[in-house]
Amino acid sequence: MIAINKGGILLVIDDSSYRSLSYNSRIRFLVVHYTAINFVEAVAALTTNVSAHYLLPCLEDSSYPFPDLRTFKLVDESQRAWHAGISAWEDRVNINDQSIGIEIVYQPEERANSADLDFPDYPTDQIKQLILLCKDILQRHPDITPTRVVGHSDIAPDRKADPGPKFPWQHLYLEGVGAWYNPETVEYYQQQFRKTLPSVMEVQQKLKAYGYPIKLTGVEDEQMRQVVNAFQMHFNPESYYGQLDIKTVAVLYALVDRYF
């Protein structure tokens, strides 16, 4: 029972006698990012112009001022953090409104004389912390199903590459976080696609069915290359250059079979 006296008028709110069963959580997605900058720079950025719910540092980062690995909560989960930007997944847009964002301190390195990046491995202790944090979040937000644990590149493939091809999605899956494919199903589809791949339109439909924001053009256009690139970084990181190959398509079909 809550009683509020405003100017001699008493507002009584009874919050215990009746409770509706018709509701669910506003949180549907868990989005993983990397900072691309060090801890000190990330704190400055994430406490001013942009934000995330959690910041996970790296002990190997010389700017990190603490002796132990800590997870920093920057925004309460009930509040909207500004981490996803223009984004979409499944039938939803504005993913900030419906998600929890985790920023991981991780810095890809620029290659000499190239626009490409080198992606180092994520530190083991950092990933262990991340898994504990994700499990805690998933326990409290059951609407975050396995296919709703995504990377920034998944929900914004035209703009983002994080958390990158070295992010250990399969390891997270084995620990109970996120989605992964059944290898036997992939092998089945690889055999089916040895002679010819499905049509571009059919592949686009499968990508859309899984959740990716893609227009069904039936053409291998730039937006499809970007989406395929994001999919490969997540599920086929041995080949993440945006070109369809047998394994990529087989993994996609296996994932749709398993989860949809």
Give a verbal description of the structure.
There is one protein chain. This protein has 260 residues and is of the alpha/beta class. The protein folds into 2 domains: 29-174, 3-Layer(aba) Sandwich (Lysozyme-like); 183-259, PGBD-like superfamily/PGBD (Muramoyl-pentapeptide Carboxypeptidase, domain 1), CATH 1.10.101. It has helices at residues 39-46, 124-140, 152-155, 169-174, 183-192, 200-210, 222-235, 246-259; strands at residues 2-6, 9-13, 29-34, 54-56, 72-73, 88-89, 92-93, 99-104, 109-110, 117-118, 149-151. It has a 5-stranded mixed sheet. A hairpin with a 2-residue loop joins strand 6 (88-89) and strand 7 (92-93). Helix 5 (183-192) packs across helix 8 (246-259) and helix 6 (200-210) crosses helix 8. The longest helix is centred in the middle third of the chain and has 17 residues, at 124-140. The chain is globular and about 80 Å long.
Q: Brief overview, please?
A:
With 260 residues, the protein is of the alpha/beta class. The protein has helices spanning 39-46, 124-140, 152-155, 169-174, 183-192, 200-210, 222-235, 246-259; strands at 2-6, 9-13, 29-34, 54-56, 72-73, 88-89, 92-93, 99-104, 109-110, 117-118, 149-151.
